[in-house]
C-alpha cells in the first residue's frame, strides 16, 4: 500500500484499486475509473485520494471565507 497522510491505496492484480483512510477501506475503483485514478494520483496523492473518496470538504470552508484575510 502506498500511504500519504492517513490515506493509502493499493493497486491489485485484477486491475482494481482500493483506497483506505487510516487503515479502513473507503472505496474500490475498477476499470476505467481505476486507470484514471492511477494516472492522476502521482501529482498530488493526498488531495487526489481525498477527492476520490469524498473526504475533501469538511465544512470549514464557510468559516474560512468569512475570515478577514480572505474577504474581498
Written account of the structure:
With 72 residues, the protein is of the alpha+beta class. The chain has one domain. The protein contains 3 helices and 4 strands; from the N terminus they run ββββααα. It has helices spanning 32-40, 45-53, 61-65; strands at residues 2-4, 7-11, 17-21, 24-29. The protein has a 4-stranded antiparallel sheet with strand order 1-2-3-4. The chain starts with a strand and ends in a 7-residue tail after the last helix. The mean pLDDT is 80.
What is the end-to-end distance? 43 Å
Task: Pick out the low-confidence regions.
Answer: none
The structure class reads alpha+beta
* Count of separate structural domains: 1
The tally of helices reads 3
Q: How would a crystallographer describe the biggest sheet? A: 4 strands, antiparallel
Biggest sheet: strands side by side, in what order? 1-2-3-4
Which geometry do the CA atoms define?
elongated
Average pLDDT number: 80
Strand content: 25-35%
Order of helices and strands: EEEEHHH
Radius of gyration: 15 Å
Number of strands: 4
Helix % is 25-40%
Helix and strand arrangement:
Blueprint lengths: L1 E3 L2 E5 L5 E5 L2 E6 L2 H9 L4 H9 L7 H5 L7
Antiparallel strand pairs: 1-2, 2-3, 3-4
Give a quick set of tags describing it.
32% helix, 72 residues, 4-stranded antiparallel β-sheet
